[in-house]
Amino acid sequence: MPTVRSNGITLAYESFGSEQDETVLLVAGLGTQMLRWSDAFCSSIAANGFHVIRFDNRDAGRSTHLSGTPVPDFAALAAAAATGTTPDVPYTLADMAADTIGLMDALEIDKAHIVGRSMGGMIAQLIAATYPARVLSLTAIMSSTGAPGLPQAEPEVMAMMMRPGPSPATDLEGYVAHAIAFARRIAGPGYPFDADAQREVILGELAHGLDPAGTSRQVAAIAATGSLRPLLGAIRAPALVIHGSDDPLVPIMAGEDIAKHIAGARFLKIEGMGHDLPAPRYAQVVEAIADNARRAGATR
């Protein structure tokens, strides 16, 4: 798997389609790897005439893991949030945005269409706001501004996400069952849940490089970054926000908040979708991303 040096770390990536086409850069979510952008999804975007790149964020997959830094103290993070102070963390989402720009630099990509899901959607917003000359268009999927007062995840879902599962080293089937149960809970009711496909993804991520401590550091990065809402007025790239009507982890009002604060943003609500990207909706989501990219071309 190819890698590049970026912002002082190593990022692993894969590409689809012709390098002669405009680039769509896919930014992964919290604790997940590039594999969550499935081959079928990436190939579908490429078939629309784009060069597609997916990559592992820092602390995920085969990119650099900051194993020498301590796992954040979540009680300290909560206390800092309650007092409005900035917690001491290894990095913030701004550093992860700089990683992404460094990836583009290393691959000699001047500008790209930035597409992020969940935490990746927050990173995408930061890139569009702080590196406007590098962004052709922005798409945020099942994401948030992180602004205070927005609805939070359902308590049961948050408890499931934070509850440690069995170790895959000693209880592989228990680990897989735990992960599938969470995936089932955050999936939307509008589409059949494919447990076999989820199992394949989970085992793929295990082989690719699992790191629960890295996920904790990414959680801390989100907490330390705070609200993105004050930055969104600086975004000039055509923006698209996609959100499921039944997202129990990042409620749809969070996506609506992004669209509300970016001038000219379009909002696509997908009925029955949860905090996932079901295969039956690939064509709709890919077409929406392509349409948003064409808006950028029309603007130029």
Architecture overview:
It is a single chain. The chain has 300 residues and is of the alpha/beta class. It has one domain (3-153, 211-299): Alpha/Beta hydrolase fold, catalytic domain (Rossmann fold), CATH 3.40.50. 41% of the residues lie in helices and 15% in strands. It has ten helices and eight strands. An eight-stranded mixed β-sheet has the order 1-2-4-3-5-6-7-8, with helices on both faces. The longest helix has 18 residues, at 282-299. It is globular.
Secondary-structure arrangement, i.e. CATH architecture: 3-Layer(aba) Sandwich
* Poorly predicted parts: none
Domains, number: 1
CATH topology: Rossmann fold
What's the gist of this structure?
With 300 residues, this protein is an alpha/beta fold.
Question: What keyword list fits this structure?
Answer:
about 300 residues; alpha/beta; 8-stranded mixed beta sheet; 8 strands; about 15% strand
Architecture blueprint of SSEs:
Layout: E1 3-6, E2 9-16, E3 23-27, H1 39-47, E4 51-55, H2 74-83, H3 93-106, E5 112-117, H4 119-130, E6 135-141, H5 155-162, H6 172-186, H7 195-209, H8 212-225, E7 239-244, H9 252-260, E8 266-270, H10 282-299
Parallel strand pairs: 3-4, 3-5, 5-6, 6-7, 7-8
Antiparallel strand pairs: 1-2, 2-4
Helix pairs in contact: 3-4, 6-7
